[in-house]
Amino acid sequence: MKENLSMLKIENFTKKINNQTILDNFNLEVPHGHVAILLGPSGVGKSTFLRTLNNLEKLDAGKVTLDNQQMDLKTINKTHLSGLVFQNFNLFENMTAEENIIFVLEKSLKLKSKEAKQIATSLLEKYSLTDSKDKYPSQLSGGQKQRLAIARATSIKPKIICLDEPTSALDPYLTSMVAEIINELVKQNYIVIVTTHDISLVKKLNGTIHLMKSGKIVESADTNEFWNNPEKFILLSKFTEIN
C-alpha cells in the first residue's frame, strides 16, 4: 500500500523550559481532513506543543514535515501554514470584530483594504457575526469571541488549524456549536489539532484521540472505536471516567 504523504508529521519534538522537559520526543501524524484531539489534564504539554508548532516557543529538537516537505518553524508565521486559536482568544481589544480580521489580512497577506474588507465581510457572515461587526471584543459573548478567533485564524487560509482548549470558558450549548465548527473545518480538508480536557467536546468530534502524559502520547484511538469499545483502551477509559 502506498504511504499517505499528504499529512502533518511531527517527529521527536523535544522542549524544555527551565530545565524541565515539557515535550519528550513527542510524535504525531495528522492527515488533511482529520482532527487530532490531544487529551489530558493541565501540565502534560498540550498547549506547549501548539505554541512550539506555531513558533511561539523555540523547538529544542525534532522535525516537522507537511505533505512530505520539511518545514522550518522559524518561518511558519511568514508562510502562514498554521493558524492558532488561543485559549483566551488573543483578540485585539482596541479593534472591532471586523477590524480584527482586516488587520490580520493587511499585515499578514499584505492585502489592500478593499479586498481585506470583502474577505472579512464574508467570514463574519459565515460565522454569524455580521450583526456584531462593529462591536469590540469586550462587547462580545464567549461564543462570539471564539467564532471571531476562528474566523481570524482561517482568514489567512492556513493548512493547519490549531485550537487550544476551545471550550474551556463555554457552556454546553456553545460547546456543541464549537464542535460543529471544528467538524466543518475537517470537511474543508484542514489539518485540525485540538487540545482539550473537555470530554463533552471530545464526544462530539470525529477523529483520533491522543491521550498525553508527561510530554508524550501514551495511548491513541479513533473516536468511534473508542466510544464503541472503551474497554480496549485502558488509559483513555480511565481518564474519561475520572473527568
What does this structure look like?
β1 (7-17) and β2 form a beta hairpin. This protein is 36% helix and 27% strand. A 6-stranded mixed β-sheet has the order 6-7-8-3-9-10, with helices on both faces. The chain has helices at 46-53, 76-79, 97-108, 113-126, 142-155, 172-187, 199-202, 223-228, 234-242, and strands spanning 7-17, 20-31, 34-39, 61-66, 69-70, 82-85, 160-164, 191-196, 208-213, 216-222. The chain has 243 residues and is an alpha/beta fold. It folds into 2 domains: 31-60 and 72-81 and 158-243, Rossmann fold (3-Layer(aba) Sandwich); 88-157, no CATH class. It has 9 helices and 10 strands.
Can you give me a brief rundown of this structure?
The protein is an alpha/beta fold. It has helices at 46-53, 76-79, 97-108, 113-126, 142-155, 172-187, 199-202, 223-228, 234-242, and strands at 7-17, 20-31, 34-39, 61-66, 69-70, 82-85, 160-164, 191-196, 208-213, 216-222. It folds into 2 domains: 31-60 and 72-81 and 158-243, P-loop containing nucleotide triphosphate hydrolases (Rossmann fold), CATH 3.40.50.300; 88-157, no CATH class.
What's the SSE blueprint?
Elements: E1 7-17, E2 20-31, E3 34-39, H1 46-53, E4 61-66, E5 69-70, H2 76-79, E6 82-85, H3 97-108, H4 113-126, H5 142-155, E7 160-164, H6 172-187, E8 191-196, H7 199-202, E9 208-213, E10 216-222, H8 223-228, H9 234-242
Parallel strand pairs: 3-8, 3-9, 6-7, 7-8
Antiparallel strand pairs: 1-2, 1-4, 4-5, 9-10
Helix pairs in contact: 3-4, 3-5, 4-5
Through-space gap between termini: 39 Å
- Major sheet details: 6 strands, mixed
Sequence of strands across the biggest β-sheet: 6-7-8-3-9-10
Count of DSSP strands:
10
Q: Can you tell me the CATH architecture of the largest domain?
A: 3-Layer(aba) Sandwich
Number of domains: 2
Name the helix and strand elements from N-terminus to C-terminus, one letter apiece. EEEHEEHEHHHEHEHEEHH
**In CATH, what is the homologous superfamily of the largest domain?**
P-loop containing nucleotide triphosphate hydrolases
Give the uncertain stretches in residue-range form.
none
Based on helices, strands and strand pairing, what is the structural class?
alpha/beta
Number of helices: 9
Strand content: 25-35%
Shape category: globular
CATH fold name of the largest domain, please?
Rossmann fold
Could you estimate the helical fraction of the residues in percent?
Answer: 25-40%
